[in-house]
Amino acid sequence: MTKSETYIHNIRQLNNDGLQQLFSQIQAKDTPGWADGKALEYLILRQFELEGAEVVYPFSVLGRGEYNEVIEQIDGMVYLDNITCLVECKDQIQKVDFVPLAKMRNQLLRRPASTIGSVFTTSTFTDAAGTLAAYTGQQVILLWEKTEIEYVMQNNCICDSLKKKYRYFNEHCVPDLNTKWH
Is the pTM of the predicted complex or chain greater than 0.90? Predict the structure, then answer.
């Protein structure tokens, strides 16, 4: 089995309680058997999967041509009703700056206009990241911070929260609505 297949197998063994325990381990920076940042990627996708969304676990996009070089590393995709969402996860202590959002914007530019992005972090976002997410034009990028991840996992509502965040963004151009409070 490849490392990715092992991760998928292991995460699919976890139910909601197991995911909450894994999230506690992620926050404590104690995730044996997981490469840095991988536990969060698979946890987020598994939460969507448990709630009925179709997910694609992390994958690479190959370029065209003779060597088929990797041109993108994607943390995951979520298909929920009529929403297609590209997922990026950042398991870090420091605030997430605008760089991952700029990368996400470029990834979204290569996909149908209806595809949106979501960036999840175990910390928070800088003001610059929030500003960029609010002004990305046709490339919708929703922001998810630690407190909201905790909330959606405890309440099994990540799918409903994605719909709510997307609708709120469409109406108010706010990418970081915390559904815990709304």
Answer: yes
